[in-house]
Amino acid sequence: MNKIFALLLCILLFSCTDNTVMERYDVAQKPGEVTVKGFSKPDVLQMRFNGEPVSIDGETSYTNKIETTLQFVLDQGETNKLAIYNNETGKEVVQYNITYDNIEEYKKLYFFNLPGIFLQAEVIKPQVNFGKVGFEFIFPNLGEFSGSSLKNVKGVLKRENGAILAEFDNIGKDSFTPVKIYSSFSSTAPVYLELYKPGTTDPYAGSAMIKVKIKQDMGANMIILQEKLENGVWVVKGDVDVAEYL
Asked: Where would one find the signal peptide in this protein (predicted)?
């Protein structure tokens, strides 16, 4: 009788152990792939995937053009952390939490890192023919100091005499506008971008005209608009041209 009881106990234990092993490996999985295209100057960056430094061409810290493709296995219910750090200070710049369910959102990651600016957008310098000037705009911190809840604004680019050079219906936070091109009229004369609520001639915040002085260079200009505080008053600046780094 004791032998029979012992045999049944062994069968039961084996069955439980076998089920535990099956449950451990019976987890839904699928391949994950993330293509990273970035740029950083002058800061040196490091990417870490689940805490481990990512090697690019044998280097675990990088500057200027930063491009790689990560391939891994996604387990349902687990989170994979991809983070970007300033390699000198160790400060985390941005973090992405990638899971079995949201991988489609992270198939392609773009960033552009400059002093005081971390832009999460694809950056492609447009082709502009000789003798022409082209402009693209992006407004990543729209509303930070103005308090505006708008997702995008309308921009009208003008000469000093008020002549309209180009109009941009939707200048948003996440991507550059399509390029608008016009014939060059001066290498030194400034141009001005007036900012409105979409579809109106009302300032996008407040009641005063919002007019941004923009430096124009021959060829492509990719301007990052930024709300800033000056002497306690918020203003909009457009003095960073991404095209100068490309």
From this structure: 1-20
Inside any domain, residue 224: yes
**Cα–Cα distances in angstroms (integers) from residue 228 to residues 81, 117, 145, 192, 239, in the given order:** 32, 12, 7, 17, 12
pLDDT in tens, 194-222: 999 999 999 999 999 999 999 888 999 99
Statement: residue 8 has pLDDT above 60:
no
- Clarify whether residues 61 and 156 are in a common domain: no
Asked if 43 contacts 63 with a C-beta cutoff of 8 angstroms, the reply is: yes
3-state secondary structure of 64: strand
Structure tokens at 163: 């002549």
Same domain, 115 and 144: no
Query: Strand runs (DSSP E) across 50-159, as ranges?
Result: 52-53, 62-75, 79-86, 92-99, 108-114, 117-119, 132-138, 152-158
Of the residues 93, 119, 145, which one is the last residue of a structural domain? 119
Per-residue pLDDT of 104-130, as tens digits, reads 999 999 999 998 899 999 999 999 999
Contact, 215 vs 241, CB < 8 A?
Answer: yes
Domain stops at, among 119, 148, 179: 119
Mark whether 97 and 171 lie in a shared domain. no
Calpha distance 90→205 (Å, rounded) = 37
Record the pTM: 0.81
Q: Would you say 242 and 224 are in contact if contact means Cβ atoms under 8 Å apart?
A: yes
